Amino acid sequence: MPPTWDIFCTVIDNYGDIGVTWRLARQLASEHSLHVRLWVDDLTAFTRLCPSADPQASQQWQQGVDVRHWASDWPACATAEVVIGAFGCRLPGPYLDALAARATPALWLNLEYLSAEDWVEGCHGLPSPQPNGLRTVFFFPGFTAKTGGLLRERDLVQRCLAWQTDDTARQAFLARLNVHPAPTARLISLFAYENPQLANWLDALIEDVQPTHLLVPEGRILADLNAWFGEALAVGDVRRRGGLTLQVLPFVSQQDYDQLLWCCDFNAVRGEDSFVRAQWAGQPWLWHIYIQDENAHWEKLEAFLKIYRQGLSDEAAQALLAVWRAWNMDRDMAQAWRALQPHWPTLQAHARQWRSAQAARPDLATALVQFYRNWL
């Protein structure tokens, strides 16, 4: 019998935690034939990503995964051979007691946040003894051979490439969302936290020589969008100003969001899950990193930019840095965006090269399975 896996997820507020764990659970079940239980404390958030799910069910099967509601009233259940606590979440006390009572130890992994910082390589795979006699092991996703890799389904890049060369499928998908861009328009997706530089960027898009069709899935950035337009926009609304067409989209499933990214010429994303999916889309992109106190997130941002810009010319690298820093550090986004335009072909080629390089590494799910085998 294949080993059983338990994944615990505490939903915070931005879908990144449940987004990552839901993708991981599906891949472990479908590609590695594992019995996976995904314990989620907020099924309402889960149903935003998996519309077929029942937000009231204590247990349900979704896409091969045993999804359980993680409630304060913990049910008696057997522990798994592999236990993953995502992003430092604290496992239920009764479950920890059951882990400590096992005749044969389970592998308890602490799946950490994705980061390109130098110290990650040194901490990946390190054990951490716990007061109850158990120990957990730090497992870091990452971009180098000394980390756990990135979430990537086995055929993801091939599916993306096939999609991007199939104009019929692309147009049919956009039509399903009621998106009908002009033939010459550049298609941009925007998924972000609140950002004071949005108005600056929109002003620049209005004046662009090439028209833009901006797709905004409903989310936190809508408040800034409403302030710029001077009205409350709703899902389905389309507005035009100068060379900019703006359209508000509904919050979509993970599969649909992937395809939206594949359709677009440029993707502005946020957090961790969409951060990784934009890289697999192989198009120029922009990351809005999760904001931390005292701007602690800037160090994480700069660490990624240090490795991502490798291979770019000095001019293209500086233009890329200027846009990412403007978006994340409240600098002049309009000026940075205009300076980026001459480097567009270079950034397109670089995004594809980066995707190929990362796809040559083991994916996160495979790395986790191999880590367990080695541990045995």
Task: Record keyword descriptors for this entry.
18% strand; single chain; alpha/beta; Rossmann fold; 6-stranded mixed sheet
Short description:
This protein is of the alpha/beta class and 376 residues long. The chain has helices at residues 16-32, 43-49, 93-100, 119-123, 156-164, 167-176, 198-207, 222-229, 254-263, 273-281, 297-308, 314-329, 333-340, 344-359, 364-375, and strands spanning 4-9, 35-40, 59-62, 65-69, 82-86, 107-111, 127-129, 135-139, 186-190, 212-217, 238-241, 244-249, 266-270, 285-288.
Describe this structure in words.
- This protein is an alpha/beta fold.
- It has two domains: 4-150 and 362-375, Rossmann fold (3-Layer(aba) Sandwich), CATH 3.40.50; 156-359, Rossmann fold (3-Layer(aba) Sandwich).
- The chain has 15 helices and 14 strands.
- It has helices at residues 16-32, 43-49, 93-100, 119-123, 156-164, 167-176, 198-207, 222-229, 254-263, 273-281, 297-308, 314-329, 333-340, 344-359, 364-375, and strands spanning 4-9, 35-40, 59-62, 65-69, 82-86, 107-111, 127-129, 135-139, 186-190, 212-217, 238-241, 244-249, 266-270, 285-288.
- An eight-stranded mixed sheet has the order 3-4-2-1-5-6-8-7, with helices on one face. A six-stranded mixed sheet has the order 11-12-10-9-13-14.
- Strand 13 (266-270), helix 10 (273-281) and strand 14 (285-288) form a beta-alpha-beta unit.
- Helix 1 crosses helix 15 (364-375).
- It is globular, with a radius of gyration of 21 Å.
- The mean pLDDT is 95.
- Keywords: Elongation factor, Glycosyltransferase, Protein biosynthesis, Transferase.
- It comes from Pseudomonas parafulva.
- It catalyses: dTDP-beta-L-rhamnose + L-arginyl-[protein] = N(omega)-(alpha-L-rhamnosyl)-L-arginyl-[protein] + dTDP + H(+).
- Belongs to the glycosyltransferase 104 family.
